[in-house]
Amino acid sequence: MSDRSHLFVPGDDEDAIESAKQSGTDAIIVDLEDTVLKSAKASARHTTVRTVEEWSADDPTLYVRVNGLDTEFVMADVEALIDCAAVPEAIVVPDVRSATEVQIVTDKLDSASSDIGLVPLIERPEAVFRVHEIAGASERTIMLAFGSVDFRMNIGMSALDSNADVYLPRYLISMAASAVGCRALDTVFLDRENDAGLRAETKEARQIGFDGKMAIAESQIPNVNEGFAPTERELDRARRLVDAFEAADAGVVYFEGTFVDRPVVEEQRRLLDHGAE
């Protein structure tokens, strides 16, 4: 099963990192960017290096969000992670605007023969228009992520509204990820008290092809994980559909009012495999 929940934790908060490990999240994004004050960047980097090196195979999947490519901190962040005795699954690169920017980080990792992957974070309208190029810019890219908060502010929208009105960029990012064969990670949901809203948005993310969702609070993890898991109703329907197709021994079957052929059956088999994980 691919990681569903990805919890942001400040890179300079060791207690929060330890707590996050016990939260049930599938992945943790240790953050060196927005959640760390400029005056604390160096100490957060040092703490993050120690965190990476002490990470256990039993812990959630580890990602590190570095500072933006337009900052003075980013190359020091990347170099510190390259030099770690252990490495994170991937570096989350914020505010990626073009394929060229992905290549800059790729070249740095290639020159060190590093095993670290990349997750470009799409946060600007120009990046959305170039998202297929960004997705295919590097073989190191394992996932595309959408940052709706900065995206909204960059086009003059309120950062605090729901994500229903940024459906189009979410869909385009999901499509681009699918086109190049990487995963897609949906944006955060800011209202940590609105469980119903989070559940609805997570369900929508799954429906439009996202594989997981970022989170800002441990309390959001159960709803995100549940939202990306197939329901018992879906699994029951999938079992009946597969059984009906196999019993018919034909290329197409008529199942509960719908014509179903082999590609649909294979998709339902994958759903059953997902439910068994």
UniProtKB/TrEMBL annotation:
The keyword Transmembrane helix does not apply. It comes from the Archaea. GO terms for biological process: oxaloacetate metabolic process. Keywords: Lyase, Magnesium, Metal-binding. The keyword Magnesium applies. One of its GO terms (molecular function) is magnesium ion binding. Its cofactor is Mg(2+). Residues 4-216 form the HpcH/HpaI aldolase/citrate lyase domain. InterPro entries: Aldolase/citrate-lyase_domain, Citrate_lyase_beta/mcl1/mcl2, Pyrv/PenolPyrv_kinase-like_dom, Pyrv_kinase-like_dom_sf. This is Citrate lyase beta subunit. It comes from Halococcus salifodinae DSM 8989.
